Amino acid sequence: MTVVGLTPPHVYVLAAVYAAWTLPEVVDDARGSDDGPDLDANSRVVLSVAVGAGFAVAFWAAFRAPAWATFGGLALPAFWAGVLATLAGVALRWYSIRALGDAFDRSVTVTDDQTVVARGPYAVVRHPAYTGGFLAILGVSLSLGTWPGVLAVAAGVSAGYAYRIRVEERALRRELDGYDDYCERVPYRLVPGVY
């Protein structure tokens, strides 16, 4: 069975969207940061492995999917919904990173002069950059066009972010003045009213 997201011209659209998302991430990651102690507890590794495992299943399913595992007649709308979800997720992620400013770091760390950021998307949920990342990743899996792929990515991303958020919040509650009060004011981590 041919999957829409893996056939021209759709595969080129998906590749361009994926590149527009990941290249800035790689460039930003290469800049690195050594501000403050590393409190990460390997959560970056856990998140990467969990997301990678989900994507491995999603790509395997996209290439090997039997007809029952695909979106069938909804494949084209699902592809475009996935592209839009990816773009929206990337936009939310970078807006959130920008709102954090100097407090953003790819590792869990707290500096002496760091303060709680409660403006912009951080007034709605505590980890909007992760919400954006989650939406972007799910969008790519949706564009690949199989139910097993979407479910595998959702499971992997959920597990990875759950661990990452637990590590990060434990560190922030311990190291950052005012974070407990912030958690009281903004009770949801990723999705308002849900989690």
TrEMBL record:
Q: Does the keyword Magnesium apply?
A: no
Q: Which controlled-vocabulary keywords does the entry list?
A: Membrane, Transmembrane, Transmembrane helix
Annotated TM spans: 43-62, 74-95, 134-163
Q: Which Pfam families match?
A: PEMT (PF04191)
Cellular component per GO?
Answer: endomembrane system
User: Looking at the record's lineage, which domain of life comes first?
Assistant: Archaea
How this chain sits in the membrane, per its record, is: Multi-pass membrane protein
Protein's cellular compartments: Endomembrane system
The name of this protein is Isoprenylcysteine carboxylmethyltransferase family protein
